[in-house]
Design brief:
Largest sheet: 5 strands, antiparallel
Strand order of the largest sheet: 4-3-2-1-5
Strand content: 15-25%
Radius of gyration: 19 Å
Number of helices: 5
Order of helices and strands: EEEEHEHHHEEEEH
Distance between the termini: 59 Å
Structural class: alpha+beta
Helix content: 25-40%
Length: 222
């Protein structure tokens, strides 16, 4: 059995499905409504805690595609167990790594298993996923203010708006045109270059914030 967590978004014509597996792989498929779509080469496990890294990537993908107009939550979030084994064979000698025929099977199995497990949010599904595979995680704080709540006193309007967005589960991301970008969620600050990236520990986030604030004050008049 293979435990996975994922979602599906649509824009009226096309849909995108993203799934993270318990082995730390991120799979994506694109296609027209009503079809699993064409599977892309998965993001393979990277460094330490690959499951946590790709779950953070999963959240970022959802935010980016919703910003692109994929606002139909065809599968808001689901954690399911599939009767599959995720053991992709190595590429043949002298040939580049290509999409194995078994990858589309994952999306067809996901489609078949989702109806009995859907109905919650992506965060609900992520929490169930971590619990099922026995991975440590910090659930989102229930006392975070809702999106319509009053901002903290003294915050600039733009900061208050972003704070509400983060509290509501939305990620704040840099422009996709940048070679080096960032994604900020309620739980993580992540810097990325292309497909590679890393989440910063809290103390590094504090230092980065101090450095950026100092730079802005230094360059206020410029």
């Amino acid at each position: 059995m293979l435990t996975v967590v994922g979602f599906r978004l649509g824009n009226g014509n096309r849909q995108m499905t993203a799934v993270v597996t318990e082995s730390g792989r991120l799979h994506r498929a694109h296609g027209p409504y009503g079809a699993p779509g064409r599977a892309s080469r998965p993001h393979t496990p990277v460094r330490d805690n690959p499951v946590h890294r790709h779950v953070a990537h999963l959240r970022g993908l959802r935010s980016r595609y919703m910003a692109k107009g994929y606002s139909d939550e065809l599968i808001a979030g689901a954690c399911v167990q599939l009767e599959l084994e995720e053991t992709p064979p190595p590429p043949a000698p002298g040939r580049a790594h290509s999409v194995e025929p078994s990858w589309p099977l994952l999306f067809r199995a996901f489609d078949a298993a989702v109806p009995a497990a859907s109905g919650g949010t992506l965060e609900d599904a992520i929490n169930r996923f971590y619990t099922t595979i026995g991975a440590p995680f910090l659930p989102r704080r229930p006392d975070r203010p809702a999106a319509g709540g009053r901002p903290a006193a003294g915050l600039p309007r733009r900061v208050a708006a972003l704070r509400r967005a983060l509290a509501d589960g939305t990620a704040v991301s840099s422009s996709p045109r940048l070679a080096v970008g960032y994604t900020v969620t309620a739980d993580h600050v992540r810097l990325h270059v292309g497909r590679a990236g890393e989440s910063l520990p809290r103390q590094d986030v504090v230092e980065l914030h101090a450095a950026l604030s100092a730079w802005l004050h230094l360059n206020t008049a410029k």
